[in-house]
Amino acid sequence: MGASFEDLEVWKKSCRLAVRLYELLKDCRDYGMKDQMLRSSVSIPSNIAEGSERQSIPDFQRFINIAKGSAAELRTQVYISRDVKILNDTDAKEIIQELKSISRMLQALHKSLKNKYTVNCEQLTLINRKP
Q1: Model's pTM, two decimal places?
Q2: What is residue 114's predicted lDDT score, i.e. its pLDDT?
Q3: Which residue of 28, 44, 71, 108 is 20 to 30 Å from 10, comparing CA positions?
Q4: Domain boundaries in the chain?
Q5: Angle at Cα 108 formed by Cα 57 and Cα 104, nearest 5°?
Q6: What CATH number has the domain spanning 5-128?
């Protein structure tokens, strides 16, 4: 499918976000919320990587959708963590903005793959319609 997932800016950005959350939550004593947030944060780049390596556009799109779901799940957890004072307002706002940016990037990647898949299917149809 071309370039490696390591070359994708959305993968790099989501990895940086996961690392940042590990740093912010290292002293958090609410282990349930901490565990859930870290799992969600790691799920985003992990699903991008797994989908990319599947060598199938529909599979990659499916894993991008899963990554988007994990980003939305994490955003919800950040809102709750802010409200219960696990995260301060400044950190929560920054993380929420990063997650919104990651979601937009994932949507754009999904759309670009959809366009690529449509073109490939149309080309295959034309090849199979031999005169």
Answers
A1: 0.87
A2: 80
A3: 28
A4: 5-128
A5: 130
A6: 1.20.1440.60
